[in-house]
Specification:
three-stranded parallel beta sheet; 271 residues; alpha/beta; 2 domains; 11 helices; globular; single chain; Rossmann fold
Length: 271
């Protein structure tokens, strides 16, 4: 199985939904989209091998892939959507904002002014504010302390894992719990977390100085393209109806399969 299928505990969530052993998910004969993006469902340098199924969250991602000549797609909905189907309890009260600063990744780095972003958050959010850092920034004392010194509650959902090791299989469960306790979700880039928050009823905002990748990603970053593609999803306060419509489409909330159907698609019918 492609190791990225385990990132954020995706395979574990899908296995639990299908009634399989969530601690030891069966092998998936393909690659599951692991995050929202503006292209074909997969990140730079992460083209699924020929002959392996591309399991994407939405028909939007499938159509984008077909535009560049990719085939072998299967639209199954996002693992997040299957998590919501299993974790249905809703919070009684919400308060404050959870903010997700745009983050680096394991094979790259970003540049930007955290101080400027902190000032912007303080200007816009009445509080209380929780800042969720990616594990790399969370482990950087100078970054973490900057947000803590600003008076924010600072958390991390865990590590997504590398080559089947170090994966926090409760990553998305933690994220779901945090989003459900907050009234708003915000970021300085339109990212997966914004759609996750919207899917559970958070108000949303996308604003502030945008961090940029240092390395050349072949145009994949596309921050300006994202703004042109979804101009209405940028601002201190986003139209909830518009956001709900795009969220439903991009997360494949209306694409959920039954446990039997999903097992068949993933090759688990005999597992």
């Amino acid at each position: 199985m492609d190791s990225s299928n385990h990132w954020y505990g995706h395979a574990h969530i899908l296995a639990a939904y299908c009634g399989k052993d969530a601690a030891r998910p069966p092998r998936i004969n393909g690659v599951v989209q692991h995050g929202w993006n503006i292209l074909h469902g997969f990140g730079p340098g992460h083209e699924p091998p020929a002959g392996f199924i591309k399991y994407v969250w939405s028909d939007v991602a499938r159509r984008r892939g077909h535009l560049i000549g990719w085939r072998d797609y299967a639209v199954i909905g996002s693992p997040w959507a299957y998590l919501l189907a299993q974790e249905t309890e809703q919070p009684k009260e919400r308060s404050g904002t959870i903010f997700y600063p745009f983050h680096t990744w394991e094979q790259g780095s970003i540049e930007g002014d955290h101080g400027e972003l902190i000032a912007r958050i303080k200007e816009i959010e009445p509080g209380p504010v929780t800042v969720c850092l990616y594990w790399i920034e969370y482990d950087m004392p100078e970054v973490r302390s900057a947000y803590e010194d600003a008076g924010f509650r600072v958390i991390c959902h865990g590590q997504r894992g590398t080559y089947w090791k170090g994966t926090d299989t409760r990553f998305l469960y933690k994220q779901l719990a945090e989003l459900r306790r907050h009234k708003r979700v915000a970021s300085n880039r339109l990212t997966t977390a914004i759609f996750y928050g919207a899917s559970v009823g958070c108000e949303a905002g996308v604003y502030g100085p945008q961090m940029d990748f240092v390395e050349d990603r072949g145009g994949f970053d596309g921050k300006h393209y994202v703004q042109r593609l979804h101009p209405g999803l940028h601002g201190e306060s986003i139209d909830p109806d518009l956001l709900a419509e795009v969220t439903r489409s991009e997360l494949g909330l209306d694409q959920l399969l039954s446990p039997q159907e999903l097992s068949y698609e993933l090759g688990w019918s005999m597992a």
